[in-house]
Every structure is written in structure tokens, then in C-alpha cells.
Amino acid sequence: DTAVSQTPKYLVTQMGNDKSIKCEQNLGHDTMYWYKQDSKKFLKIMFSYNNKELIINETVPNRFSPKSPDKAHLNLHINSLELGDSAVYFCASSQGVSTYGSTFGSGTRLTVV
Amino acid sequence: GNSVTQMEGPVTLSEEAFLTINCTYTATGYPSLFWYVQYPGEGLQLLLKATKADDKGSNKGFEATYRKETTSFHLEKGSVQVSDSAVYFCALSEDRQLTFGSGTQLTVLP
What stretches of A16-107 adopt beta strand conformation (E)? Predict the structure, then answer.
């Protein structure tokens, strides 16, 4: 059973489109995250939700909107996609405040053309 | 703010060579420290962790010791294998979030 699953794994879309990436975890964790990994492999946190409440919201364009319908899901919706949004997006989860590390999904490679 | 600095890659080694990937950190308090590994096409996996000074994390032959005096958490392995080829990330946890280093690409040649 996959602990943190993201869909889709690959996403190719045109500039200006709106797209969503879904994430689900079956670990019973109470905190979920979205990270962006750029072409140089640098990982940067975007959002974090604890018990469905937004607790970390780094400086990302407001075209990115996370949605957490319940503790097990954290979806990422992106409006008006731009070329610079091309990256690999990772979802992760943890129990509490990441003191013992997070479990990551396998990533969604987004390509904007 | 918190930050993690790790040695730039790529690092290329022959099988059975000794590996060291340096990592130093800046934090306001007493963070937990981690090494994550990312194999090609996969997500990050927690490799090892240390939650307080002088703790040694170890897993799969890799080791790292939390050195508060030098604010370091260097990753070592005595004899690398081809299957260790991956990107390695040093990270710290404080204030409810993980802060990552920029990653170090390791390639092990047979």
C-alpha cells in the first residue's frame, strides 16, 4: 500500500490552463505539505496543513491554492499556468511538526508548454 | 532564518570507495537533522535522522553524527555501491517545517 500517493505522475499542459494535483496519505498523519523541486533539484516548501488548517504559506504566487478537504488529503490547484511553474511537485506528510521526518510521495512532474 | 548548506555535486566515486558528503546548518534553536535520499524518478526517502547533539543516525551502512559545536551533520559510508547512486539531501526540522539543502548528486561507477 502506498503511504503518500500523488496523481497524476506526469502532467503536460499549455500556458494559461488551470490544473490540479491530488495527494492522499494513509498513514494517519495530521500534517501535510507541498514542496516544489526545481530543475537544479532544490526543494522548497510551499504549503503546510495541520489538521486541515493552513500553518505554512511560503511566498508563492496566489495562482497556487492548496485545498485540504480532510486530514488525509491535500490537493494543489494552479491557475493560469506559466512556463516557470514547470517543476516536480512533491506532497509529504508527517505526524506533528516533522520532528521525526516526513514521508514523501513520488512526485508529479509538471511541464508547461 | 534556518538554512542548510551541503557540498556541491556532482560526486563521482568508484564502487567500494569511501563517501563523505558535508552538511552544515544554521538554526535558532535545537533542530532535528535528517538525510534524505532520492533515487532516480522517485520521491525522497528518509535515510537517517538525529534529534539531539552527539546522536548518530545510521541506516544501510550510512552514518551521520549531530555535531552541535561545528553545526554539522556530515554523511559517511565506508564502501559505496552502484545502487547508492542518487541525490542526497541534508535537512533540518524546526518551527514546524523542514528546511532542505540543495542536494548532492552521487554517482557510483562499477
Answer: 19-25, 31-37, 43-50, 53-57, 64-70, 73-78, 87-94, 103-104
